[in-house]
Each structure stands twice: as structure tokens, then as C-alpha cells.
Amino acid sequence: MDVKRDILWRVYLSYIAVVIVGLVIIGKAFYIQQVEGKHWRNMSDSLHQKIEETEAERGTIYSEDGQMLSTSVPQFDIYIDFGAEGLQEKNGKRFKDNLDSLSYNLSGLFKDQTEGEYKKILLEGFKNKDRYYFLRKNISYREYQQLKTFPLVRLGKNKSGFIAVDKSKRLNPYNMLAFRTIGLARDSFKVGLELTYDSILKGKSGSRLVRYIAGGVSIPVEGVFETEAENGKDIVTTIDVFVQGITENALMKMMIQNEAEHGCALVMETKTGKIKAIANLGKRNDGSYFEDYNYAINPTEPGSTFKLVTLMSLLEDKKVSLDQIVNVQNGVWQTAGQTVYDDDDMRGKTDITVKQAFEFSSNVGMAKLATMGYSNNPTQFLHHLKKFRMDTLTGIDLTGERKPVIIRPGSRLWGPTTLPWMAFGYNLQVTPLQTITLYNSIANNAAMMHPYLVSSVKEEGAMIREFQPKIVDEKICSDETLKQIKECLEGVCIEGTARKLFANSPYKVAGKTGTALVANGSRGYADQIFQSSFVGFFPVENPQYTILVVIVNKPHVVNHFGATVAGPVFKEISDRLYLNYVRQNNYMKNSSNKNDSSYFNYVGLKDDVKQVIKTMQLHYSDSTSLTEDWVNMNSNKGSVALSNRKINDGSMPQLKGLGLKDAVYLCENIGLKLNVKGKGRVEDQSIAAGTPIAKGQIINISLN
Questions:
Q1: What predicted TM-score, i.e. pTM, was given to this entire model?
Q2: Distance in angstroms (rounded) separating the CA atoms of residues 657 and 674
Q3: pLDDT tens-digit map of 423-478
Q4: Does the 242-585 domain belong in CATH 3.40.710.10?
Q5: Cα–Cα dist 268/285, whole Å
Q6: Pair 683, 704: CB distance under 8 Å
Q7: Which fold has domain 52-236?
Q8: Smaller CB count within 10 Å for the chain: N or C?
Q9: What's the CA gap between 179 and 172, in Å, rounded?
């Protein structure tokens, strides 16, 4: 009996202990929930909330003519909080009332799923009370503005559950246009102006309280804590979109034609030093070309364009005169056990003038003259390189400009052949930007301008800083030397290596060709890779632009001379600049409005023709009807007359006189397929005007 009582006592004691422990747990839970609840809830929120830095809106980069070259475009990620109180109240009445119309609108906007599929997705999310359901990524600002007008969404975040997380994407609207120079701000990778002016463009960050959800996505907590970001400022570059476009197109055309490895082309405004265009193209593995590297600020052996430095130095020191005779020894000269060669044009020639040696780009002539003038005192020659700023950075406002490589007397690399080879552009490396800056100085009456790419900084359209043209050296050489050098550079384009290139040019050019054999890494010069160059300025009487083109060709290419590879690129650019800027400006300044008695007849779309007439400020008479899209434009007693050009879809139209673009547009609109021969305006067509036609029929057209 005592044993039984003892066992029961222990059981009761254990039971009482369990009850007491249970009551303590319940009490503690109640205490935590009711008394300390606020404290722990705040701590929980602190684990999921954080003060986050908000990026400022990055400033825009503009061209000088007001076009956007790089800008930030807003984008949005869309989430839905199906657990939002406003969405769930009254058993989800608000959600259910708007479900059909919302599904219809979402399907119409995004066009990725049907109305029924969207309805199914929304119902499932509502049923599961998904707190942050991911609906759509990277929608545009236009799409976001449209989304905010949809049923339910327009009621606001608290009642609809729709949450938009805003961000921005950096875009270059003109894609490859000056891509490497402008740069692209993505993550930590920045190049070009995006890097150089990063501190101005990026603005000042703000901060806000955010709550983190599944997947690491942060959602702003509105009305709690927020400091506004200070948006970045805009910069206006010196680049002209039109000039950049023609420069890039001309360079691209030759790169493709000659299957070149890489190249660059620069256009500088002579009087100011503004860089109006800078194109850099490199060949990719698939054979296409892209702005992959800024070759314009990368040093390389310049070749014969450097002969300007040699001749200027000799003339400044009075060591030669232009009519002095130099024996080029049939284009072959040996010195210190090495041989200097000229191109085939100099073979068979012996005694020529210094001016001719420069105009026909004689390596032998320049090497012999430099040796004669400076072999006893090479430092004197190096002094001129310093004076012409060939031994230092130009200081252009573009991060990444590399230093030139100049071998100096006394270094282990200096030898008996260093000076004569430097005379024609070897045994040293300078950047294309340095070369064009020097030639621009000659064009600008010996005043060296500082090259620059940004003309102003603006904030919300208001000017806050402007960069003016800056003279680096008011006179890099004497007036006498300047006159002689201009004469030689002009002679290159009249009688020398570029005579064929500018034989029929309506304007005068002064410039210099260059053809250099360049090393290919460890293989040295064995691959016969040539660098073709041309640099010059125009018009000679009053230079407006200085242009440089450098193209590195593929190994063993036949066409590799400066005059036949780089020269045509220069001329295409200069021709367009002359027609669109130089000639037009001179016409506006120097000529009065006179009636033009010459006959002309053009055909085109009415809107295009009228745009041309408006731009040229021509007086015209218009007898066209409102229903006709195509017009004839004829001369009429010194004025312009517009008349109807009827087009009948059932018969072949008259194409004669149309430009290729209009002919293609017209024929394709009526279902014809074209074969085109020639260039210019339509001169002949295989299907006579008025002949019945059928869709898919082929027509051959010849251009004049």
C-alpha cells in the first residue's frame, strides 16, 4: 500500500510540474506577444528593412548640334502584392470586379499571353495571397504610363497591390556613332567621356528605406525616410552628328573594301581645336567592324606624315632651303650597315630638290637631310620634337590617352640608325591625335590649339560652365618656315604623291600621305602589314577643317599606300564638308540672291521636295493637287515650279529622273522587284512607262 501511495505521489507531482511549465510557457508567450510584441516586431522589420542608396539620374551627353549621344532611359519592374489589405477587403470584391478588364488590358499591352492566361495567373496569385508576385521585367516608361491607367492599377498601390520598382538603362541612341569616344556607363565599366566626366554626369545619390522581399528585390517603404538624389549634369560635346556620320561611313567603306585590321579618322575645326568627329573601327572575329578601341589616342609609328616634323626642324634651323638639291641615289641609301628604301616612284631619280623630296615622300631624301643636319647634335632635333609637342600628351579631355614613345640620345636603344629612321617616321611612336594637332597648327598660321571634346556643362538646360578654345602655343615656327611648309603640303596635292587624288577637286588641299610598315608583335615586320595615312587641311586659302585618316591593313595586301587607301577616305569626308559647310557658308556670305537661268528637272515625294525647297529658301509656284504624293520640280524663269506626277498602280510609272531611293520606294509599293545598275538618277527602265504590270514582276533600271 505504501508503495502504491508513493507511486501516485510521484505521478501527481510530475503532473503538477508539467502543468506549471505549461502555464509558464503560455504566460511567456502572452507576455512576448502583448507586452514585448512591438519591440520584437520592430526588430523583425529591421532585419528585412534597410536604408538603401538611390542613384541619381545620370546626365545626358549631347552633340554640338543638340542630338542625344548617350542618355538614361527609365525602366520598371512590376510586382503585385496580392496580400494588400485594399485588395483582400470585402472578400476581394475590388479584385474580382476588375479582374476581366485588367486581364484584357494586360494582354493588349504586353501581347505575350492571352486574356484568359492573364486571368488564370491573377486568380492563382490572389488565391495564394502571394505577397510580391513578379509580373513583368524592364517595361518602358511609355508602357508604365499606360499601365497606370488600367482598371484596378489606377486606384493606387494600397488598393491594387501593384508595385513598380523604377530603374534606368543607359543607351546610345546612335548606336555605334563615336561609341568608343562617348563610352557607355554600365555597372563599373566606363570608357570615353562617360568615364572622363563621370563625376559631373553621375550627380549625387540619395537614400530611402526599403523592404526586401523574395529574390532579394527591394521595395520602397513610402513616407518613412527618404532624401532626394541630385541628378547629374548634362555635357555638350564638340561632336557634330552629321560630320561624325560621314566620317564613320567613309572610313567603314574603305575598311571593308581593303579588309583592313583597324583604323581611325578625325576631323578637327581648324580655328578652335574642336574635335568634330572621331571614328575608331576594329575588325572582329566574324569579319564585321566595331568601335572596339580608341586608336586615335594610341601611339604608333607614324611613317611619312612625320616628315613634316623633319622638314620644319631643318627649315627652322636654316640647315636647308626648298630649292637645295639632295641626291636620293635611285631610292636606295645605305648607312651604318642598314638600307633606306624609297617607293618605286623614286627609282631612277638622283638629284631632286628638298621640296620634291617632301612632295614625293622620299625616305632617302629625308634621312640624308636629317643625318646631314643633326648627326653631330641629335639633341637639337629632339628639341624641335618638344617644341612641336610630339613628346607629350595633347591633354585632350578623354581618359586613356597614351604617352608617345621617343628614343633619346644616351639611351640603350639609341644607335647610328635611330636619327635617319626617325626622319621618315620610324623608331618613335606618336598618336594620330598628336599628328592632327600639329598639322592643324600649320593650317592655323602656326598657332597650336588644344584639342577638346566637351564645349559646355548644363543643368536643366542652363549653362553652368563653358569651355573656350585654348591656344597651347601661339607660334610653333617662324612665318618664313610656315610659308614654306604650306607650299610643300600644297605641292603634295598638286604635283606629289596625292596629285591624282585631288586632280579635279573644286577646292585646294594641303596635306601629306604616309605609308609605314608596322610590326606585328613577336613576328616583327615579316607579315608585311602596312599602315596607310593621310592628314591635311582645306580650303588652303582659309582652312576650316583638318582631317586625319590612319588605316592598318591586313598582311600582304596589294593596295596599301596612303594616297590610295587613306586618301580616298579623306577626300570623301572633305567633299561632303565642302558641299555642306564650307561652300554653303561662303555662298551665304559672298553672294546675293540671283535668278538661276540653268534648266533642271527633278522628281520626288512632295513632302521631301518641299523640305528641300524650304531648307534652301527658294521661291516656288505650286500647281499640285492635294491627292498627289509625287511631284515634278522644274526650273521656271529662275524660280521653281511644282507640278503633279501621276502614279497609276495598274501600269508602269515613269521612273526617269527619280533618285534611287524614290525609285525603290515607288516600285516596291506597287509590288515590283528591282535590279539596279549604276548610281545617280534613273536614266533608263526595262519596262516602258504606261505598260500594264503585275505584282512580283522584275524591272531593270539604269542610273546615270
A1: 0.72
A2: 16
A3: 999 999 999 999 999 999 999 999 999 999 999 999 888 899 999 999 999 999 99
A4: yes
A5: 31
A6: yes
A7: Penicillin-binding protein 2a (Domain 2) (3.90.1310)
A8: N
A9: 8
